[in-house]
Amino acid sequence: MCGIIGLHLRDPELQPMLGRLLDDMLCGVSERGPDSVGIAVYGDGERNPEGHSAVSVLRAPGDLAASAGALLPGTPTVTARVAGDTTVLSAPVGVEALTAAVAAAAPEALVVGSGNDLVVYKGAGHPQDLARTYGLRAVSGWQGVAHTRMATESAINPEGCHPYSVGADQCLVHNGSFSNHATIRRELERQGVTFDSENDSEVGARFVAACLAEGDDLEKALLRLGETFDGFYTLLVTTADGFAVVRDEIACKPAVIAEHPRWVAMASEFRALAELPGIDEARVFEPDPGKVYAWQR
Fold first, then answer.
1. Domain for residue 62, yes or no?
2. Residues spanned by the domain of 250
3. Percent of the chain with pLDDT over 90
4. How far is CA 229 from the centre of its chain?
5. Residue 282: inside a domain
6. Sheet (strand 242-247) strand order
7. How many domains does the chain have?
8. Terminal Cα-to-Cα distance of the chain (whole angstroms)
9. Rounded Cα distance, 288 and 248, in Å
10. What is the pLDDT of residue 151?
11. Does residue 16 belong to any structural domain of this protein?
12. To 10 degrees, the CA torsion angle through 248, 250, 252, 255?
């Protein structure tokens, strides 16, 4: 089941409205996944200021900001903002340095998102309740993605929420299932890739991240995924400058795309798109099976 929404803003004048638009879209897919919701936003200068990086963490101890800051060169100030199960740490250092400091300071914590432009929130519960917990309507930025989950492959908990963000400023959300994920997981593990969950969607995210690290662009990475993975799926993948959608060759999982001069949007239900500004002027279509649709900032 599960529900996916994504919004890529082309018009900077809409950026202060990102959170309100995403919240309205989320209402249209909430019943597709009442178990939990994860949200990722790009470009919110309050939650991840310019010149900073941010790391989103589950199971964070209360003193994590201070203990992680003490491990960073120059001991910069690390700020922590708690929203439900997610703690977002931000500091004026590189994302790799902050992620490493968090891991060293709190080995029991789980990093679920990181980037120079990205903030991720995850939690179990009803999507509308969690949207309020995350302060979604107050979000600004240029891109956002959310996923409402009806669990089939792993436990209902914050760790099992999408998006899976396993590379800096990268996110993947998934509706469907991969039938050969165990085989691909073993191959990635032989290559030194480590996993945080048993979720099949994480295997897809790790595969895409590996392709991007090898130099593929987003479109090529998703074409390679389509050649490698079996199953039924709709995927939305986002990066620091990209937004892409792909469905399997049978395309039994629902998806609708709307393209407008001011924005590009994708959702599992058309009703999630119905209130976007100018929707009556947009090109609205169902993505073809096996075809990658990609846009760049």
1. no
2. 3-48+117-296
3. 86
4. 20
5. yes
6. 171-178, 231-238, 242-247, 293-296
7. 1
8. 30
9. 9
10. 61
11. yes
12. 50
Q: Is 192 exposed, middle or buried (0-12, 13-18, 19+ CB in 10 A)?
A: exposed
* CATH code, 138: 3.60.20.10
Sheet holding 53-58, edge to edge: 79-83, 86-91, 53-58, 110-115
Q: Tens digits of per-residue pLDDT, 122-166?
A: 998 888 888 999 999 999 999 999 998 766 656 677 888 889 999
Largest CA distance in the chain: 54
Q: What is the pLDDT of residue 29?
A: 84
Closest C-alpha among 16, 40, 291, 15 to residue 172: 40
Taking the whole predicted model, whether its pTM rises above 0.85 is answered as yes
Helix and strand element counts for the chain (H, E):
7, 15
Q: Which of 31-40, 71-80, 215-224, 281-290 has the lowest mean pLDDT?
A: 31-40
Whole-angstrom distance, CA of residue 157 vs CA of residue 170:
21
Determine phi and psi for 228, rounding to 5 degrees: -105, -35
Residue 77 amino acid letter: T
pLDDT value at 33 more than 70: no
| pLDDT at residue 280, as a whole number | 97
Closest CA to 39 of 118, 103, 95: 118
CA 85 – CA 88 distance, rounded (Å)? 10
Q: How many CA atoms lie within 13 A of 31 on its CB side?
A: 4
Centre a 10 Å sphere on the Cβ of residue 177 and count the other Cβ atoms it contains: 16
Location of structure tokens 């662009």: 217
In a domain? residue 267? yes
Residue 288: what residue type? D
What residues are annotated to the active site? Answer: 2
- Where do the DSSP E strands lie in 107-207? 110-115, 118-124, 143-149, 171-178
